[in-house]
Amino acid sequence: MNRYLLLAVCHFIAYTLTAQSPVIKHPGSASICDGKSLILSVEDAPTGASFKWRKDAVLIVPAATEASYTATTTGSYDVIVTKANVHDTLKAIKVTVNPNPVASFTASASGLCSNLPMQFTNTSTGSALEYLWSFDDPKSGTKNTSDARNPSHTFIGTPGNGIDNFKVVLVVTDSRGCKDNTNVTVNVKQIPGTQLDGTGYTLYNGLPYFTICNESNSTFEFINISSTKATNTNYQIKWGDASPDFNSATFNTPLTHDYSVGKHTLQFIVTGANGCKETMVYNVFVGSNPAVGLGNPGNTIICSGTSLTFPISNTSSNPPGTVYTVGFNDGSPSIVYNHPAPDDVTHRFDEGSCGIFSQGFSNSFSATIVASNPCATSAAAVVPIYVSKKGVANFSISPKDTACVNTTVTFTNIGTNASIISSQGQCTPGKSVWHITPATGWTTTGNMGSDLASNPANWQAGDNSLNVVFNIPGIYKIKLRTGGNLSCGGDELERTVCINPTPVANFTTNQATGCAPLTVTTTNTSIQPNCGINTYSWSVLYSSNTGCEPGESDFDFINGTNANSINPQFRFNNPGVYTIRLFTTSKSSNCTSVAFTRDITVKAKPTVSFNLPSSICQNSSINPTALVNNCYSTTAATYAWTFAGGIPATSTAAQPGPVAFNAAGTHTITLAVTNECGTTTITKQLTVKPTPDVTIPPNLV
């Protein structure tokens, strides 16, 4: 049986190694709102697997055995996936069910007349709530909804003498997106209709007018056409001319009223049987079609930034209520005056008219005035108005205004070019010219243009973009001049660029050789830029002679310095040759030097060994030889041998020659080798074996 289980496990392991491991997935966030659900699904499950879902490590009852589970409560959900008797519990998903906010509100009062605002007070609970109100009042247009916390609303409803009901709905949403809604039905009293008909009724500028086009006092007739005439209880008319109001419980026959020339405001106030009042405002106009004139100020060939004053005429006889609209087709807003009109209007032309077509004239603006009243409209215009545009000098520098010598700097005209319009309406573009000071130290293949002529119209235009190579370090002034003609003048902009020399790295050290650990201080003598600051990058290379231990690099930056310090300090811990390397970069101009290097030789005590047999016989000798690496020392090493029990007992030679040992036993041999960095001492033991005693037996014959 164990053999089959092992085989099943092997199959399952083979599957998991060749396929993606199953995981629990879900759409969106694992945080849901109360009343909602989250579908948890096993993805990449092995074919034929079975499932047992758990909540908080307890099997769900009744059993949940599908590849997906719908969670509706807070908890940690996992699933046991079983294949061939091998069980795999997938990583749990933490589901959080958040409480919903509670929507609630009150209304100020029901039973108001519908033309009075009703106040709604929010009493909802929840955090960071957002609000959406719907008032069930489509006739109120865009005011039918609100996102205010405590809005007010004036219901439009239907004219009448009854009650209108509106189902007001509030939806609240909290910061987690959880929602709740509630509704309250409010009722309002209908308001009476205020429809009035009469002489010359029309709409003018969207407003109701009664109009008689006459230059003398006129009589108007007014007819009650209220939609709630059968239930109205009172009518009031405020004539708007200081005459006594009309006030009556009935209005069944037409009324007449005399008005003087001009505009008057009539208020029609109707009271319904339910006590609600509504007021409608009507305009009454007596007058003739208006007259108007707009004078040409002369000299309408101008430059941008110039103001012109246009006389306004022929308006004195126009009736009150006449409106004057002055417009200029240069993109500026219209100016509106009510009668009486001013004597003139002044306008500043800030844009050029090149490309504008006005009433048959190319490259021209126009000035217009329109006088209007309910009777008619009159207009006058001044055209052509030729406005030449004064240029605005501006240019960009790429890659930046600080560069290295012998690199390319690009200057691009990004200003507004002038446009010149002749008296015949012909539009000619202005010209721009480049200047670089000093005139030497740089080259360009572009055309800088020429402004030797006093009139910009006679200049030779330079290129829009100029590539310049500066071959001498220094400060250069770049100027761009733009102009169109003498009358409009021109504009200029001057900027400076700083050209730095190519960075050259250099430094000195306080010492070039010494014994480990060796402290070295650097002094940075690299060439400095004209502008900005240089950055520095220090690194160290290493080499070592074979046999000088440990034969690997070991150094530190000390005293708070690092690889980017101006004058770093080093401590070299192991012997060898260290190459200090410096790159310097002109950060503002983005160019880097070639590497400058200096070698530091770090010496150490000698590395010492010597050859010695493990044992010799009594009355024999040895010939030791010192094997020494002097580790970059510049002085010869000295030697001190000590041979305990040997003849000779000491030596100062690297190869002391034969040393005899006549006494048996263990003897200590010591070698001390010294250079300027110190002494290295090593000791070895030599075993001297005694000579065996030989007994010669007697001669037996």
Approximate helicity band = under 10%
Which percent range describes the beta-strand content?
A: over 45%
* Count of all domains: 7
Based on helices, strands and strand pairing, what is the structural class?
Answer: mainly beta
Q: How would you describe this structure to a colleague?
A:
The structure is a single chain. The chain has 701 residues and is mainly beta. The chain has seven domains: 2-98, Immunoglobulins (Immunoglobulin-like); 105-189, Immunoglobulins (Immunoglobulin-like, Sandwich), CATH 2.60.40; 196-287, Immunoglobulin-like, CATH 2.60.40; 293-378, Immunoglobulin-like; 395-496; 507-603, Immunoglobulin-like (Sandwich), CATH 2.60.40; 607-689, Sandwich (Immunoglobulin-like), CATH 2.60.40. It is 2% helix and 50% strand. The chain is built from one helix and 64 strands. Strands 2, 4, 5, 7, 8 and 9 form a six-stranded mixed β-sheet that branches. It has a six-stranded mixed β-sheet with strand order 19-20-26-25-22-23, with no helix packed on it. A five-stranded mixed β-sheet has the order 11-17-16-13-14, with no helix packed on it. A hairpin with a 7-residue loop joins β22 and β23 (246-248). It is elongated. Mean pLDDT is 92; it is low at 1-19.
Present the secondary structure layout.
Elements: H1 2-18, E1 23-25, E2 31-33, E3 38-43, E4 50-55, E5 58-59, E6 68-71, E7 75-83, E8 86-89, E9 93-98, E10 105-107, E11 112-113, E12 118-122, E13 130-134, E14 145-146, E15 152-153, E16 163-173, E17 179-189, E18 196-198, E19 201-204, E20 207-213, E21 218-224, E22 232-238, E23 246-248, E24 255-259, E25 262-272, E26 277-287, E27 293-294, E28 301-303, E29 306-313, E30 323-328, E31 335-338, E32 344-349, E33 357-358, E34 361-362, E35 365-372, E36 377-388, E37 395-398, E38 402-404, E39 408-413, E40 419-421, E41 427-429, E42 431-437, E43 442-444, E44 465-470, E45 474-485, E46 489-500, E47 507-509, E48 513-515, E49 518-524, E50 534-543, E51 555-558, E52 569-572, E53 576-586, E54 591-592, E55 596-603, E56 607-610, E57 615-617, E58 620-622, E59 626-629, E60 638-643, E61 650-651, E62 659-661, E63 665-675, E64 678-689
Parallel strand pairs: 2-9, 11-17, 20-26, 28-36, 38-46, 48-55, 57-64
Antiparallel strand pairs: 1-3, 3-6, 4-5, 4-7, 7-8, 7-9, 10-12, 12-15, 13-14, 13-16, 16-17, 18-21, 19-20, 21-24, 22-23, 22-25, 25-26, 27-29, 29-32, 30-31, 30-35, 33-34, 35-36, 37-39, 39-44, 40-41, 42-45, 43-44, 45-46, 47-49, 49-52, 50-53, 51-52, 53-54, 53-55, 56-59, 58-62, 60-61, 60-63, 63-64
